[in-house]
Amino acid sequence: MKLSKAPRWFACFYMLVLLLLTTTGCADNIIVLDPKGPIAEQQKDLMLISTILGSSVIVPVLILTAIIVWRYRDRKGRKAKYTPNWEHSTKLEVIWWGIPIAIIAALAVITVRSTYALEPSKPLASEKKQLTIQVTSLDWKWLFQYPEQGIATVNDVKFPEGVPIRFEITADSPMNSFWIPQLGGQMYAMSGMAMTLYLQANQQGEYWGSGANFTGKDFAKMYFNVESTTQEDFEKWVNKVKAESPKLTLEGYKQLAQPAASGVKSFSAFPEGLFEKTVTKYASSHHHGMSSKDMQDMQMKE
């Protein structure tokens, strides 16, 4: 059945309104657009700039497509100029080749500068001493070790606000991806490799962390709690873990590494050099962001 003009216009208008309402309702759930740290803020700016530059081509093309379809539609009394022998326009060629080339060049410059500025293993400038947290991806859980504090946790990570965090990331399981969306982009966790990722939270709060790479049956349960606190609260939490939590033994780690989902756990101690042994037992020589001296130190600790 062919609709008249009024119902067709109403249907198009209704679809447009529905689309706007749907995308607006989802905006609050896009946590990557609500950054809480310097890295995530720069990444958000990069996404917005790339979107704007891309839209400067896409939006005019869509508008022109609609205008051309409307203007040159088949109808009685059509006044559009008929030029069957037209084949070239220098002005149009310059427009539809020059503008995309300029945009691609701009994106290239922005990408190169951002790639260097956002290199994940590049330390963050700060007057505060950085905190090292060693991250091990297991089936299907995350183990966090605090080498300076001597404690460990499962699926729960805490750190002070405004302090640069050096995450050293590996896996004792299939490859996964470590991700705290509001603090920065993801970093792969791979067996036999030690990856380095610097992040920082600029304010106190609770954030969401997750594995971003499919690893099997309980992949959906592989998320962890992230909390940025004051320095005083962080030290109280460390002391509480030391006083109330059991120790993680080597045998306990072997059981923890077995494929199974897990809740939040904490340990007052862990085997010395556990992270280093996890990395080096797979005999890989590739380490992103870790110097040869770091790896030699790992070997000496065994």
Automatic annotation (TrEMBL):
It is a multi-pass membrane protein. It holds the Pfam family COX2. One of its GO terms (cellular component) is plasma membrane. The keyword Lipoprotein applies. It is an enzyme of class 1 (oxidoreductase). The keyword Lipoprotein applies. Its main location: membrane. It is found in: Cell membrane. Keywords: Cell membrane, Electron transport, Lipoprotein, Membrane, Oxidoreductase, Palmitate, Respiratory chain, Signal, Transmembrane, Transmembrane helix, Transport. It comes from the Bacteria. It catalyses: 2 a quinol + O2 = 2 a quinone + 2 H2O. One of its GO terms (biological process) is ATP synthesis coupled electron transport. InterPro entries: CcO_II, CcO_II-like_C, COX_ARM, Cupredoxin, CuRO_UO_II, Cyt_c_oxidase_su2_TM_dom, Cyt_c_oxidase_su2_TM_sf, Cyt_o_ubiquinol_oxidase_su2. Its EC number is 1.10.3.-. GO terms for molecular function: copper ion binding; cytochrome bo3 ubiquinol oxidase activity; cytochrome-c oxidase activity; oxidoreductase activity, acting on diphenols and related substances as donors, oxygen as acceptor. NCBIfam families: CyoA (TIGR01433), QOXA (TIGR01432). Belongs to the cytochrome c oxidase subunit 2 family. Catalyzes quinol oxidation with the concomitant reduction of oxygen to water. Subunit II transfers the electrons from a quinol to the binuclear center of the catalytic subunit I. This is Quinol oxidase subunit 2. It comes from Paenibacillus baekrokdamisoli.
